[in-house]
Amino acid sequence: MNLMSLRPADEDDIESMVRIEKSVHPSPWNAQHFLEELNKSFSTLWVYTDDETDSLVYGYICFWEMDKELQILNVAVDPQKKRQGLGHGLVQKVISYGIKNQLKRIFLNVRKSNDPAIALYQKCQFQITHVRKNFYSHSEDAYEMEVRLDGGERVPEVPVSRKIH
Ligand SMILES: CC(C)(COP(=O)(O)OP(=O)(O)OC[C@H]1O[C@@H](n2cnc3c(N)ncnc32)[C@H](O)[C@@H]1OP(=O)(O)O)[C@@H](O)C(=O)NCCC(=O)NCCS
For 50-85, how does the pLDDT look when each residue is reduced to its tens digit (9 = 90+)? Predict the structure, then answer.
């Protein structure tokens, strides 16, 4: 595997991120959406790129920081680079950032049908705390998942039975 590093995204990465978006998400972000995230003071966008050229984007993660909490808005890995630990690396970096900055919790919403992402978050100690009915278009429900960083009281986990392949 090529060596890669994580760095803040910039406008030159947008084209690659849009290409990955189209191949992995049912409702992909477009270039304008990425540009807006780059310009929001509370939004952070990190990319994994190859060390040789620093321009090949293999994966990215976007999160918002507000009121001592982080919300992960998007995480995606190039389909050709899946199952090599990149997704885990991206989420763990955000958790490390949250711990370093003494934040209270990290949360996100994920499609109920998105087994790979749910398994990734569970591997990173996230728990399902709520079911959000019809959260997505076409009436798909979401799970809200969170990981506490402050030792604060956890919302009881929602019991769900799911089969992971
Ligand atoms: C979800 C996603 C980011 C995972 O990225 P990845 O780099 O392939 O994941 P990793 O290799 O780091 O896997 C970490 C863990 O996640 C889980 N996982 C990842 N892909 C999985 C799959 N297809 N099936 C089951 N579990 C999976 C496993 O627990 C895995 O640990 P293991 O390899 O030790 O079994 C990637 O599949 C993706 O880009 N999906 C499309 C975009 C998306 O759905 N994003 C989430 C929106 S909320």
Answer: 999 999 999 999 999 999 999 999 999 999 999 999
- Domain parsing of the chain, residue ranges: 4-107
Calculate ∠ Cα 146-124-117, nearest 5°: 80
Tell me the CA–centroid distance for residue 117 and ligand 1, in Å: 5
Q: pLDDT below 50 — which residues of the chain?
A: 163-165
| Fold of the domain built from segment(s) 4-107 | Aminopeptidase (3.40.630)
Which residue's C-alpha comes closest to atom 15 of ligand 1? 120
DSSP string, 83-104: TSSHHHHHHHHHHHHHHHTT-S
Ligand 1 atom 39, closest CA:
76
Which of 27, 77, 111, 112, when mutated, tests ligand 1's pocket best, judged by the most ligand atoms within 8 Å of its CB? 77
